[in-house]
Every structure is written in C-alpha cells, then in structure tokens.
Amino acid sequence: LGYHWKYDDLREFRLQNEPTPYKVISYGHINLQNPHDPAVTEPLYPNEFVDLTLPLQPVFHRLLKGHQLRLV
Predict the structure, then answer these.
(1) What mean pLDDT do residues 59-69 have?
(2) Contact between 42 and 36 (Cβ < 8 Å)
(3) Per the confidence metrics, is the pTM higher than 0.85?
C-alpha cells in the first residue's frame, strides 16, 4: 500500500532459472503520493481507492491470436 512503507515487509524478486515465453513490451510507474506535481504530496488513506489518469504514448504491437496483454 505504500502508506507505512518503512514498516512494510521487504519483497525481493528472484530471476527465473529458465527463460519464460513472456515478454515485457513497456515499463511505467507513478508515485501515488504526488501524481500531479513532484513538489506536492497528497494524502493517501488505507483502504481508499484512488482514481488516476495515466497519459500513455500510443505504441502499436501486433499480438498473435490467442496471446494476452496484461497490466501488472
């Protein structure tokens, strides 16, 4: 949740032993405490949803039939 990040458990990700068929086609992130201005911190509250608008640069990818696109 990021609200009490100092007290959160550290989660480390390990690399796969074998390559997977999955491919990353884009990266992005947003800081939920200051989504509109890096100099202005907005309050976050536990268990409360936040509406965001993410401006994205259009990029065309051709996905084969049966493939899936996922947002993580």
Answers:
(1) 85
(2) yes
(3) no
